[in-house]
Structure formats: C-alpha cells, structure tokens
Amino acid sequence: MSDFQHISVAQTAELLAAGKVVIADIRDEQSFAGGHIDGAFHLTNGSLTGFMQQYEFEQPVVVVCYHGNSSQGAAQYLAQQGFEQVYSMDGGFESWRQQLPFVSGDSA
C-alpha cells in the first residue's frame, strides 16, 4: 500500500486503547512538550531514522499534527517508505484535546 487513510479521533482512541497503533506526532517541539497523546512518538526530521528503526512496516501508524492537514503529507511519506497501514487523524491534536485526555506539559 502506498497511500494513507483518514481516521477519526474516536477510531484512533479505540486502536490506541487496544495497543494496535503507534501515534506519530509531527508538531513542533514546544507544542509536543505542551501536550500530546499519551505514548506518542515525536516524529521530526531528526527522529525519522530512529522511528523507522524502532517500528516495523507492519506496525499501524497514526500521524497527528495540529488540525489534520500537515499529517496528510507525513502519512503519505511514511506509506511511501513502506509502512503498510498509515492514517492521518482528522482534526489533529486540537480535536483530540477537546475530546479526550492527553499528557500535559503543564504541572498546574
């Protein structure tokens, strides 16, 4: 497969709860540090090689950005690299943040 698929926040949460996906968060360092989905891998140009070494191509991947736009390009790239099940989460982290718990960088 060389194309990604779209996935909803609810579908992502279900797969994550079942331990069936890895979340690849492509937002900038400050945004990721400020809050992210629990267990998310912070995927950047600098961490891409490590990501590809850590996860098998059979591992389903959900790419998350701010609003669900940038993640589409990143998801397509991962699919082209050989990942078999790649998703772009519609609505991005902002949608997740409004609906579900996340790891916050704020201690207050």
TrEMBL record:
Its EC number is 2.8.1.1. Residues 17-104 form the Rhodanese domain. Pfam families: Rhodanese (PF00581). InterPro entries: GlpE_sulfurtransferase, Rhodanese-like_dom, Rhodanese-like_dom_sf, Thiosulf_sulfurTrfase. It comes from the Bacteria. One of its GO terms (cellular component) is cytoplasm. One of its GO terms (molecular function) is thiosulfate-cyanide sulfurtransferase activity. The active site is at residue 65. The keyword Cytoplasm applies. Gene3D superfamilies: Rhodanese-like domain. Transferase that catalyzes the transfer of sulfur from thiosulfate to thiophilic acceptors such as cyanide or dithiols. May function in a CysM-independent thiosulfate assimilation pathway by catalyzing the conversion of thiosulfate to sulfite, which can then be used for L-cysteine biosynthesis. Belongs to the GlpE family. This is Thiosulfate sulfurtransferase GlpE. It comes from Rheinheimera pacifica. The lineage of its organism: Bacteria, Pseudomonadati, Pseudomonadota, Gammaproteobacteria, Chromatiales.
